[in-house]
């Protein structure tokens, strides 16, 4: 359960950062971003796999780049449902989805399955051997 809460907060931070970096994304406050992160998580859990399956042929043809379009559509859907969170324009949603995906991936890669922040500590054992 702590892992879910931490991932929810990382997605919230990613949404706030995207709103800070892109003019067309507006968040009225922390709780609006928290609600948007919750709704985006729900949409990504239930509807994104179906959307990816339906658009699989075009996704293969674009080498997976169409996934950003699906993420942008999910972001626009969240914008329509959550008050205090607005995304103006399609390309704003695409760039916002790109930033949110990258930041969320980066932060979530530091979190283990049990919800703890992990750091990989490599030690040089001589030659080309690291442990």
From TrEMBL:
Record InterPro entries: Phage_holin_4_2
Entry-linked Pfam families: Phage_holin_4_2
UniProt entry keywords in alphabetical sequence: Membrane, Transmembrane, Transmembrane helix
Transmembrane residue ranges: 6-22, 29-47, 53-75, 87-107
Protein name, as recorded: Phage holin family protein
């Amino acid at each position: 359960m702590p892992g879910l809460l931490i991932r929810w907060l990382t997605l919230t931070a990613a949404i706030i950062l995207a709103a800070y970096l892109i003019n067309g994304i507006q968040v009225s406050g922390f709780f609006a971003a928290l609600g948007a992160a919750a709704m985006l998580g729900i949409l990504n859990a239930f509807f994104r796999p179906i959307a990816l399956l339906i658009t699989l042929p075009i996704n293969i043809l674009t080498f997976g780049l169409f996934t950003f379009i699906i993420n942008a559509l999910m972001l626009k859907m969240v914008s329509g449902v959550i008050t205090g969170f607005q995304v103006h324009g399609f390309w704003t949603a695409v760039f916002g989805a790109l930033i949110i995906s990258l930041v969320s991936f980066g932060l979530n890669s530091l979190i283990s399955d049990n919800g703890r922040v992990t750091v990989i500590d490599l030690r040089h054992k001589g030659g080309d051997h690291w442990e």
